[in-house]
Design brief:
single chain; 227 residues; mainly alpha; Arc Repressor Mutant, subunit A; Tetracycline Repressor, domain 2; 10 helices; 0% strand
């Protein structure tokens, strides 16, 4: 008889990978170690995930989806900020995996639904298109991520932890309020071809993209391909 998928086993595998990553990073995350920690066999792990990269991709995808679901239930930007921080602090190991090499492929070319949700909320509050607020969202994202990692790595607890979260939320709101009050649209040094959070369209190497576009616009006889 054919085997039926075991969601609990797959969850255990991803949880094991998360814990191993937290203990020793990439060096600790071997297929054999994942199998042992998950209470299964190495061939079973390979049946579900071809290699470690697939495990990490599945873990990132699962974490992004869970975070997006939590954020979707909030109503205001301040609530979304608090929700983001609480999620990161409740799932510190998965959160760290989520942002390891986040601006490099393949993570760069995976969708960032939470980033896009924040941009959409900003467009609702400030007007314009969500892409108009990419630069602002990057600043707010840096604020939230920095706070989360400071608390996680610094092992903040008690009053210090509470006050740090509150200070971050207040700073987040202050930045958004200032953006709402600004009557002139900022003119940042922000390349139009730099795209974040949009899956396969995302890219961060704007200079390389620009060179490629210029190369394609030249006559074939004079064009040169950079390797």
């Amino acid at each position: 008889m054919p085997r039926h998928p075991d969601p609990e086993l797959e969850e255990r595998i991803l949880d094991a990978a998360c814990r191993l990553w937290a203990r020793g990073g990439a060096k600790s995350l071997t297929m054999r170690a994942v199998a042992k920690t998950a209470g299964t066999t190495t061939p079973t792990v390979y049946e579900r995930y071809h290699n470690r990269a697939y495990i990490l991709r599945s873990l990132r995808s699962q974490t992004r989806l869970e975070l997006f679901k939590k954020l979707s239930r909030t109503r205001t930007l301040a609530q979304a900020c608090e929700c983001y921080l609480n999620f990161a602090l409740r799932h510190p190991h998965a959160y760290e995996v989520l942002f390891d090499s986040v601006a490099q492929p393949p993570s760069l070319h995976e969708p960032w639904p939470s980033f896009n949700l924040f941009r959409y909320r900003l467009s609702q509050r400030l007007g314009g298109d969500p892409r108009d607020h990419t630069r602002l969202m990057l600043a707010l994202w840096s604020l939230m991520h920095g706070t989360a990692m400071l608390i996680i790595r610094g092992r903040f607890a008690g009053v210090l932890r509470t006050q740090t979260i509150q200070a971050s939320i207040e700073a987040f709101e202050a930045v958004v309020r200032q953006a709402a009050r600004s009557k002139t649209k900022p003119q940042p040094r922000w390349p139009a071809n730099l795209i974040l959070g949009e899956g396969a369209h995302s890219r961060v190497n704007a200079d390389a993209a620009g060179r490629s576009r210029k190369s394609r616009s030249k006559p074939p006889a004079k064009s040169r391909r950079r390797r």
